[in-house]
Specification:
Largest sheet: none
Number of strands: 0
Order of helices and strands: HHHHHHHHHH
Structural class: mainly alpha
Shape: globular
Number of helices: 10
C-alpha cells in the first residue's frame, strides 16, 4: 500500500515537472512566432535551467532524489517564468516569500548532503552541531549571493527582482535563514540520533540508496 502511494506521488511530481516545461516551451514558441527574440532567449534559458538536475546526474554521476529534482524545477519555473515573466511577484505579495522558503530548504539540504558525505566517509572529523552550522551557513551564503545576482540583473537589465527595496532584500534573507535553520536542525538530529522528520529522513535515505559509491565506507 505504501509503495503504491509513493509511486503515485512520484508520478504527480514527474507529470507536474513535464507540464511546467511544456508551458515554458509554449511561451518560447509564442515568442518566436511574434519575433520577440529577447523573450525567446529568456524562455529558452529558463527551460534549459530546469534540466540542471539531469545535468548534474549525467556529468557528475550524482543521482538526486526525485523530490529534490521536483523542487528545483518548480523553483526555477515559479521564480523566473511565473515570477518575472508573468509578474507573479507583483500579483501575489507572498510569492517572493514562498520561493525564498523553497530555496532556503533546498540549499540547506544540499549543504547537509555535502557535509554528510564527508562525515560518513570519515574524511573529516566533526560533531553533529558542525553539520548544523555548515548547512545553515551554506544556505545563507548562497542566498546572499543570489541577492547580489538580483541587484546586478535589476541594474543592467532593468528588472524589478528586488523592487528597489532594502526591506525586500532583508525579508528575503530572513526567510532564507529561517528555512535554512529548520532544515539544518533536522539534519543535526538525523546525524546525532538518526531521528528527524519523516520527509527529511526519506530524502536522505533515498539519496544514500541512489548513490552507493558516495557512501562506500558506510555500506561496509
Amino acid at each position: 500500500m505504501k509503495k503504491k502511494e509513493t509511486s503515485y506521488v512520484d508520478k504527480i511530481m514527474i507529470g507536474t515537472s513535464f507540464l511546467l516545461r511544456i508551458l515554458i516551451l509554449i511561451e518560447a514558441v509564442t515568442a518566436a512566432w511574434n519575433k520577440n527574440l529577447w523573450l525567446l532567449f529568456l524562455t529558452l534559458c529558463i527551460l534549459i535551467l530546469t534540466f540542471i538536475p539531469s545535468f548534474i546526474e549525467r556529468n557528475y554521476k550524482i543521482n538526486l532524489p526525485l523530490e529534490l529534482q521536483f523542487i528545483v524545477v518548480v523553483f526555477i519555473s515559479f521564480s523566473l517564468f511565473l515570477g518575472e515573466m508573468r509578474s507573479y511577484y507583483v500579483k501575489f505579495w507572498w510569492w517572493d516569500v514562498l520561493l525564498h522558503s523553497m530555496s532556503g530548504i533546498v540549499l540547506a539540504f544540499v549543504g547537509f548532503l555535502i557535509v554528510y558525505i564527508l562525515y560518513t566517509e570519515k574524511k573529516i572529523r566533526m560533531r553533529p552541531r558542525f553539520v548544523l552550522l555548515f548547512s545553515f551557513c551554506f544556505a545563507v551564503a548562497i542566498g546572499s549571493l543570489w541577492e547580489i545576482v538580483e541587484f546586478t540583473l535589476d541594474s543592467f537589465l532593468g528588472l524589478q527582482m528586488q523592487e528597489a527595496s532594502l526591506f525586500d532584500t532583508m525579508l528575503d534573507l530572513i526567510v532564507d535563514s529561517i528555512s535554512a535553520l529548520i532544515v539544518s536542525v533536522a539534519g543535526y538530529f538525523y546525524v546525532k540520533r538518526k531521528k528527524s522528520s519523516l520527509f527529511f529522513r526519506h530524502l536522505v535515505e533515498r539519496f544514500v540508496k541512489a548513490n552507493p559509491k558516495l557512501f562506500r565506507r558506510k555500506k561496509r
